[in-house]
Amino acid sequence: MPLPRMTTGTAGLDTILKGGLPVDRVYLLEGQPGSGKTTLALQFLREGVRNGERCLYVTLSETTDELTEVAASHGWSLDGIDLFELASAEAVLGDGRQQSILHPWEMELDGTVRLIQAEVERFNPSRIVFDSLSELRLLAQDALRYRRQVLSLKQFFAPRNITVILVDDLTGEGGERDAHLHSLCHGVLSLERLTLDFGAARRRMQVQKLRGVDFIAGYHDLSIETGGMRIYPRLVASDHHRPFVGDAVPSDIAELDDLLGGGPLRGTSTLLTGPAGSGKTNVALQFVAAACQRGEHCCIFEFDERTGTLLTRADALGFDLRPHIESGLLELRQMDPAEISPGEFAWSVRESVQDKNCRVLVIDSLNGYLASMPQEKQLMLQMHELLSFLNQAGVLTLLINPQHGLVGTMSTGNLNVSYMADTVILFRFFEAQGRIRKALSVIKNRSGAHEDTIRELRIDGQGLRLSAPLSDFRGVLTGTPEFLGSPAPLLDELSAVQ
User: Fold this and answer.
1) Cystine design at 187: which of 124, 210, 239, 353 (Cβ 3.0–4.6 Å)?
2) Of the candidates 18, 57, 43, 55, which has an alpha carbon nearest to the alpha carbon of residue 210?
3) Helix, strand, or coil here: 174?
């Protein structure tokens, strides 16, 4: 029979644990100073207070004032949490005598443990945080005796129906994790703080073990902000499949839809790639505006461009997106490249899809996504999992990927996701009659048939316009394409007026 669960006060952690911590067990919360242990421990106790449980915080290192300051920084109160402060080993005597060199360390350790046990019996709590084991380790002075005392504490807590979190700041034994301590505890939660070359420090956590319980393994990004800790569970796409109809998503521009055989399908990803200024974002905005007109929720994640600039660009094309933003139909999110982590970004996408039923999602751009996380590991694998999640949720994903250089080169830079995308639309500049023009073509479409033609793209006050298929090109795939055919199908200002 499965054990009852206890929520932790952190929604992301409860998701990782698939419901919370099994009750009446001893857990280890470990991490270096600054990784967020105290914040997580306080959230655990405050959740107990909200549930009407008796909670006890045993502190051997921090004072009550320091804990109060931590709580105040998040706008919290410690009301309802019983605090037992044992700031120094001198207090273990309990009779006011000062520690002397003649006082045996065995008596200090034994006295400390007896005081803790007495407080537990006096308060009879349901939740306890013991902060921290490093002080107990210093009092023990001997690794064997220290582990025996931890074992005795575990045996003391076992029959009392108490859920215990032991906090370890890894300051002893060279900062290494204690494998023996891991074996004593029912579960182990590890927090890490990583300093990058630029930008804010990144934090992450993992569940090292949890006996007899299924959980989401691996690293999970987290952030500490006013209001507490937020943990972003690692995205597992296979856990989020939902049925949907894979119909075409039209852009409301007939020529563009013809290129794609009616439009990209729901549950697919489309890569818009080409040099800067060739019209990639404008075409993505066309799909977004058309979807909003149909009443579909859309989301744009901006890494490169300010949202104000994007709205101005949309106005110039004849798209008034502001009413859709005000109604909540369009979500326009500015990403801070120096602050966001891959896990937090994936969680933001997940919230838009699951909570707001996003149907069309734009990432602008992939280069900005990569530049914001230069030191992250396995970034391509995380992007693959994110696209799989979006595809299984029936979302049309538009990925904007600028190529290096304005003209000429076909290089896509460091982030090549063309193999992941179901559809690839290539934007190019070409030369005709002494003018630089824009063209686009579809070079890949897993969803079905597509045109293999090249059409001119014109972006002006009338919005987006595409010409009839063009022929007689030279140098389409290498260098700058040059148009050598009849000028009749080309778009110009005269034809726009007519």
Assistant:
1) 210
2) 18
3) helix
Residue 138 Cα to chain centre, angstroms: 38
Domain that holds residue 190: 5-234
What residue type is 95 in one-letter code?
Answer: D
The tokens for 218 are: 């691996």
Distance CA(16)–CA(415), nearest Å, equals 29
d(CA 153, CA 175): 23
Please work out, in degrees rounded to the nearest 5, the angle formed at the alpha carbon of residue 404 by the alpha carbons of 402 and 407.
95
Question: Looking at residues 2-20, what average pLDDT do you find?
Answer: 94
Let me know whether 30 and 158 are in one domain.
yes
Is residue 338 located within the same domain as residue 479? Answer: yes
Where does a domain end: 198, 217, 234?
A: 234
Please state the length of the chain.
498
Exposed/middle/buried for residue 130 (C-beta within 10 Å: 0-12, 13-18, 19+): buried
Q: What is the four-CA torsion angle of 442, 445, 451, 456, rounded to 10 degrees?
A: -20
Distance between CA atoms of residues 64 and 69, nearest Å: 9
CA distance 191 to 222: 9
Rounded Cα distance between 415 and 477, Å, is 20
Instruction: Please spell the DSSP secondary structure of 253-279, one letter per residue.
Output: -HHHHHHTTTSPBTT-EEEEEESTTSS
The pTM of this model reads 0.86
Angle 264-270-275 (CA atoms, 0-180°, nearest 5)?
130
Per-residue pLDDT reduced to its tens digit, 16-44: 999 999 999 999 999 999 999 999 999 99
- Are 213 and 325 part of one and the same domain? no
